[in-house]
């Protein structure tokens, strides 16, 4: 019996030892070149499953397996240039300060006709009863993002964006709206360099982000996404429609987009054109 106990103790210590030395915890904070903090910066390994988001005070902490030490950790914030660090070069530092440089963007001119404009709902405005898309980020303090392709026949001003939510939250959550180009059948580069975040208590039904005052003008097909930022509610359930193609999902910062094959998330925008 004593031998069994000692063997179990040895195994336990070995497991703890492997856990302790099998990964690195990288912590620090993110700011811009003027020293201002950058909250909600996406941090992760590109096309990987490990990521996190900086908190409101710009601080972050992420655990990375030693097997990924030759990869790069990328910091991405709307309106700023991405910055990457070789993981093994920062793994042993107590704290790192990631300083991001602001992008200088040349805004493309979008011409809207002065004829009387009409508003149209573009995307998926319905849903299939009893069908949903439950989603959860790969890691506790990371994002999950639902997206849909929107087809445009002519230049438009985007008035609002909507997603049907089946979950309810007891506390306030934060959802960020993103606009991407449609490239090679998936969401691509960011089209709008604006951080649009809505804080709300979610209720069952359509969740709307008003954009009338945001001056969002687009003249090409685009992908709109709802990015669920980390909160105490770790998962969220969205309504879906069977057969609705061109719906996408990703469950980590900097991660890979996955196409929903059987159906699509109920997402639409109201466009004025």
What does this structure look like?
- It holds the Pfam family CarbopepD_reg_2.
- Keywords: Signal.
- With 273 residues, this protein is mainly β.
- The chain has two helices and 22 strands.
- Strands 10, 12, 13, 14, 17, 19 and 20 form a seven-stranded antiparallel sheet that branches.
- The longest helix is centred in the N-terminal third of the chain and has 20 residues.
- The N and C termini lie far apart (80 Å).
- 32% of the residues are buried.
- The N terminus is likely disordered.
Features:
273 residues; mainly beta; 22 strands; 45% strand
**If you average the pLDDT, what whole number results?**
88
Oligomeric composition of the shown chains: single chain
Shape, per Cα inertia axes: globular
Number of DSSP strands?
22
- Radius of gyration, taken over Cα atoms and rounded to an integer in Å: 21 Å
Which structural class do the helices and strands define? mainly beta
Question: What distance separates the N and C termini?
Answer: 80 Å
* Helical run tally: 2
Uncertain regions spanning at least 5 consecutive residues = 1-20
Q: Which percent range describes the beta-strand content?
A: over 45%
Signal peptide: 1-22
Protein name: Carboxypeptidase-like regulatory domain-containing protein
Organism: Pedobacter jamesrossensis
Pfam family, one: CarbopepD_reg_2
């Amino acid at each position: 019996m004593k031998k069994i106990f000692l063997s179990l103790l040895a195994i336990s210590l070995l497991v703890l030892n492997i856990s302790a030395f099998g990964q690195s915890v990288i912590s620090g904070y993110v700011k811009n070149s003027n020293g201002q903090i950058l909250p909600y910066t996406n941090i992760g390994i590109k096309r990987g499953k490990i990521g996190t988001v900086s908190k409101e005070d710009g601080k972050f902490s992420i655990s990375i397996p030693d097997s990924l030490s030759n990869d790069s950790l990328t910091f991405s914030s709307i309106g700023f240039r991405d910055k990457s660090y070789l993981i093994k070069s920062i793994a042993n530092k107590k704290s790192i300060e990631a300083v991001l440089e602001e992008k200088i963007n040349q805004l493309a001119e979008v011409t809207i006709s002065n004829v009387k404009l009409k508003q149209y709902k573009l995307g998926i405005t319905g849903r299939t009863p009893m069908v949903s898309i439950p989603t959860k980020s790969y890691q506790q303090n990371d994002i999950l993002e639902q997206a849909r392709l929107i087809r445009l026949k002519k230049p438009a001003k985007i008035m609002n964006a909507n997603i049907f939510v089946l979950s309810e939250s007891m506390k306030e959550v934060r959802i960020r709206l993103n606009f991407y180009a449609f490239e090679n059948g998936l969401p691509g580069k960011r089209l709008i360099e604006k951080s649009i975040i809505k804080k709300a208590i979610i209720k069952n039904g359509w969740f709307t982000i008003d954009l009338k005052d945001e001056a969002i003008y687009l003249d090409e097909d685009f992908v709109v996404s709802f990015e669920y930022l980390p909160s105490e509610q770790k998962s969220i359930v969205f309504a879906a429609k069977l057969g609705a193609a061109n719906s996408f999902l990703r469950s980590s910062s900097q991660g890979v987009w996955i196409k929903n094959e059987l159906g699509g998330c109920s997402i639409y925008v109201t466009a004025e054109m």
